[in-house]
Amino acid sequence: MILAFASDDEKGLDGVLSYHFGRCPFYTFVEVEGNEVKNVFVEPNPGAQSHNPGDIPQYVASKGANMVFAGGMGPRAQEWFAQLGVRPIAGAYGKIRDIIEQVAKGPVEIAAPAEELHLEAHQEGSGSEEVDRLKKEVSHLREVIAELNERMRKLENK
């Protein structure tokens, strides 16, 4: 089975899941067999700057993905994925490694479609330094939350 993750970075299993599946900078693809990770590869999102509806679901499906994970995903994108035979999982967060462990423990529930942030619509042509700063801050906070989740999981397993 191949799991696809909208990623904020290129760190593979230690990467942080991105909130916005269509505009994430990277996709991390993880091939799993049973509970064992067989292969991990990270690719830049070909549609991060601009894409037509359906382009990203087709790209993810072309990589053989069976499931796709993101923090947020609109209903239209979820429909595209379902039509292509890729199970969409919205509402996930944290490190990719931790999400894979959750998947290995049992069935994953599909969260209600999250509202997608469209910061890019507000910054077109604005060149706003504040928007850039806030985007960096949000990315940093996601990393901090992922680290805290990992520490909490380790403490709970002791």
List the helices and strands and how they pair.
Layout (H helix, E strand, L loop, with lengths): L1 E6 L18 E8 L2 E9 L10 H8 L4 E4 L4 H9 L3 E4 L5 H10 L13 H5 L5 H28 L2
Parallel strand pairs: 1-4, 4-5
Antiparallel strand pairs: 1-2, 2-3
Describe this structure in words.
With 158 residues, the protein is an alpha/beta fold. It is built from five helices and five strands; from the N terminus they run βββαβαβααα.
Descriptive key words:
5 helices; Nucleotidyltransferase, domain 5; alpha/beta; five-stranded mixed sheet; globular; 158 residues
In short:
The protein is of the alpha/beta class.
By secondary-structure content and strand pairing, the structural class works out as: alpha/beta
Neighbour order of strands in the largest sheet: 3-2-1-4-5
Helix content: 25-40%
Order of secondary-structure elements? EEEHEHEHHH
Count of β-strands:
5
Low-confidence stretches: 110-126
Quick one: overall form? Answer: globular
The percent range for strand residues is 15-25%
Mean pLDDT: 82
